[in-house]
Design brief:
The chain has 262 residues and is mostly helical. It has a single domain, classed as GLE1-like (Serine Threonine Protein Phosphatase 5, Tetratricopeptide repeat, Alpha Horseshoe). 61% of the residues lie in helices and 4% in strands. It contains 10 helices and 4 strands. Strands 1-2 form a two-stranded antiparallel sheet. Strands 3-4 form a two-stranded antiparallel ribbon. Strand 3 and strand 4 form a beta hairpin. Helix 2 packs across helix 6, helix 3 packs across helix 6 and helix 6 runs parallel beside helix 8. The longest helix has 23 residues. Keywords: Coiled coil, Cytoplasm, mRNA transport, Nuclear pore complex, Nucleus, Protein transport, Translocation, Transport. It comes from Zapornia atra. GO terms for molecular function: inositol hexakisphosphate binding; phospholipid binding; translation initiation factor binding. InterPro entries: GLE1, GLE1-like_sf. It is found in: Cytoplasm; Nucleus, Nuclear pore complex.
């Protein structure tokens, strides 16, 4: 409910503002230690990224409630936003977007970690699990850039607004695609952020969508094996429906004005 989100936001904002806050039955304050505030900035930013990786990856609708709080905290406490991007880019290089290259002499495990895979005891996580985590983080990022906390005292410009999504999309399409990954993150990003980008960029947006269909999809197809077709087919279907209707549907989980009365 909207009222619950306000309580969560206020508690985090109070903590970062140096006010005492109740947590796990005790009173805590960042002023209790000289490095307290810097530590909380770092851990909070990490927590937001973890929520994308764990919560949003399993429940797509949760992207917007988490994003609106993260966006509001980012606006009031810019350091959290800087650290959020740092954690996000380390865990999900595709949010940069960037495809790390394997350097000569680099151990395979180190390279797999750079690509975002979890490696434990020399065992790499399953591809499905890896893609699910990347999807969650991309979806959270796509939600954050388009939504602002409605009760901010400043209500200035968005701390990391929609133009970053346009830049991300353009840079993504300048990279040679990766099998499985590229189709997955493009679909996740456009499903969450496509409607907002369409409304802002209009004709330019549709030119980009046509470019994806005519030029970029064939490049993904050329490097995709028969066992990797699932994510590509899902993305192609989404793209075709949008171009046919000349409309990108509102993403599931969008916070409507009535939400804030709950």
């Amino acid at each position: 409910a909207g009222s619950q989100l306000r309580q969560i936001y206020d508690k985090i904002d109070n903590l970062l503002s140096g006010k005492p806050v109740q947590s796990a039955g005790r009173t805590v304050s960042v002023t209790q230690h000289p490095e307290g505030l810097q530590f909380v900035y770092y851990k909070l930013a990490e927590k937001f990224v973890n929520q994308g990786e764990e919560e949003v990856s399993s429940h797509h609708d949760s992207a917007f409630p988490i994003a609106v709080v993260a966006s509001g905290i980012w606006e009031m406490h810019p350091r959290v936003g800087d650290l959020f991007l740092a954690h996000l880019h380390r865990k999900c290089p595709y949010a940069v977007p960037f495809y790390p290259e394997m350097k000569e002499g680099m151990p395979l495990e180190e390279y797999q970690r750079m690509l975002g895979y979890q490696v434990k005891d020399s065992k790499v996580e399953e591809q499905d699990h890896f893609l699910k985590r990347m999807s969650g983080m991309i979806r959270l990022y796509a939600a954050i850039i388009q939504i602002q906390w409605p009760y901010g005292s400043k209500q200035g410009t968005h701390p990391h607004g929609l133009h970053n999504g346009w830049r991300w999309l353009a840079q993504m399409l300048n990279l040679d695609p990766l099998a499985d990954v590229t189709a997955t993150v493009l679909f996740d990003f456009l499903e969450v952020c496509g409607n907002a980008l369409m409304n802002k960029y209009q004709d330019q947006f549709w030119k980009l969508m046509l470019f994806i269909r005519e030029d970029y999809i064939p490049r993904i197809e050329a490097i995709t094996s028969s066992t990797q077709m699932g994510s590509l087919m899902r993305f192609k279907q989404f793209l075709e429906e949008c171009l046919q209707k000349k409309e990108v549907p509102l993403p599931k989980g969008t916070l409507k004005p009535s939400f804030w009365k709950s």
